[in-house]
């Protein structure tokens, strides 16, 4: 793992799993996504990870035109790194997943490193849903797997990585995903430095235990040596504990309403910036310096905001 001396804060602003019924503070319109992204950056995030949503009812959307309603605003207001999803949402086709990123040609996108069961069906009967699509999304995760085949991963690496100069946040939900990444590294399809994002606590992936985190780090160290930067988070309740653990061993960190809707036990976060501020306070207390967007851009070898398509 590369020793950079500073932690990069990423903020995953809205995602595709949490829904409007779950929190009134979840940003869903282009205005809300832009405003919350800018506030999170001002609070200390160097990277914002973004999904698009249909502003009419908040459902996930692959529509590039919706992305283009908030991406330029964030770029004009900040110097942060804009990171767009290629995972999209359940039911998206490969063309859906690539539509926004290929239009925007961002500095960075996420890239899930393997197909997996991705279960959140336990939430289906826990809310009085505002929209029927919300219940269908929850229940559907019991019947369908998240499809990230070797063919799709390679396509994204070629079309976005080689074709657009985009680099990746490699999302790894289990140890096998690290080995999948090593396969593509050995094939020469991606070059270091690699930002490896360990994701813990999704039903179907690795559990949110600190012991699992250390095994994950040791495996990544063995496979990638000094060629990668570690980042990691746990969904839901363990969020801040995991982030502190990752930062203590020299890693970077990701928070945001995509990953957890809460700021404390039983207390909904009122914004993404509130989570970034809490995380920044933890890092400051641990005497861990936070990277600026310019520093993060250099650490990750990104092409620069003047080379994107928006």
Gist of the model:
This protein is an alpha/beta fold. It is 39% helix and 19% strand.
Structural class by SSE content? alpha/beta
CATH superfamily: Aldolase class I
* Largest β-sheet summary: 8 strands, parallel, barrel
Cα-based radius of gyration, to the nearest Å? 18 Å
Shape: globular
Number of strands: 16
CATH architecture: Alpha-Beta Barrel
Order of helices and strands: EEHEEEHEHEEHEHEHEHEHEEEHEH
Strand content: 15-25%
Number of helices: 10
Low-confidence stretches: none
Widest β-sheet, arrangement of strands: 2-3-6-7-10-11-12-13
CATH topology call: TIM Barrel
CATH class: Alpha Beta
Distance between the termini: 33 Å
Tally the structural domains. 1
Average pLDDT works out at: 96
Give the % helix. Answer: 25-40%
What does this 3D model show about the protein?
With 310 residues, the protein is α/β, with parallel strands linked by helices. The protein has one domain (6-307): TIM Barrel, CATH 3.20.20. The protein has helices at residues 30-43, 64-77, 94-104, 132-140, 150-164, 175-186, 210-224, 239-248, 272-285, 293-300, and strands spanning 6-7, 9-12, 47-50, 52-53, 60-61, 81-84, 108-112, 116-117, 145-146, 167-172, 194-200, 228-234, 252-255, 262-264, 267-268, 289-290. It has an eight-stranded parallel β-barrel, surrounded by eight helices. A two-stranded parallel ribbon has the order 1-16. Helix 1 packs parallel to helix 2 (64-77), helix 3 (94-104) packs parallel to helix 5 and helix 6 (175-186) runs parallel beside helix 7. It is globular and about 50 Å long. The model has no long low-confidence stretch (mean pLDDT 96). Pfam families: BKACE (PF05853). Its cofactor is Zn(2+). GO terms for molecular function: 3-keto-5-aminohexanoate cleavage activity; metal ion binding.
């Amino acid at each position: 793992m590369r020793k950079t001396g500073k932690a990069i804060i990423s903020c995953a602003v809205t995602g595709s799993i949490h829904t409007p019924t779950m929190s009134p503070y979840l940003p869903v319109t282009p205005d809300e996504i832009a405003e919350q992204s800018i506030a999170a950056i001002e609070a200390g995030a160097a990277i914002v990870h973004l999904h698009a949503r249909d502003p009419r009812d908040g459902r996930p959307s692959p529509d590039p035109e919706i992305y283009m309603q908030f991406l330029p605003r964030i770029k004009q207001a900040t110097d942060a790194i804009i990171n767009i999803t290629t995972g999209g949402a359940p039911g998206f086709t490969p063309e859906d997943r690539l539509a926004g990123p290929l239009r925007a040609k961002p500095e960075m996108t996420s890239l899930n490193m393997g197909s997996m069961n991705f279960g959140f069906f336990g939430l289906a009967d826990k809310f009085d849903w505002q929209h029927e699509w919300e219940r269908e999304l929850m229940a559907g995760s019991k019947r369908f797997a998240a499809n990230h085949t070797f063919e799709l991963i390679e396509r994204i690496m070629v079309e976005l990585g080689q074709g657009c100069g985009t680099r990746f946040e490699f999302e790894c939900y289990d140890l096998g995903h690290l080995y999948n990444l090593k396969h593509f590294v050995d094939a020469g399809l991606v070059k270091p430095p690699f930002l490896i994002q360990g994701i813990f606590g999704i039903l179907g992936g690795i559990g949110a235990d600190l012991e699992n985190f250390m095994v994950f780090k040791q495996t990544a160290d063995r496979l990638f040596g000094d060629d990668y930067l570690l980042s990691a988070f746990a969904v839901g309740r363990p969020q801040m504990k995991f982030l502190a653990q990752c930062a203590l061993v020299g890693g970077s960190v990701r928070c945001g309403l995509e990953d957890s809707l809460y700021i404390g036990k039983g207390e909904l976060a009122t914004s993404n910036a509130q989570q970034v501020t809490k995380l920044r306070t933890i890092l400051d207390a641990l005497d861990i310096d936070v990277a600026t967007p310019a520093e993060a851009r250099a650490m990750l070898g990104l092409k620069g905001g003047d080379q994107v398509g928006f």
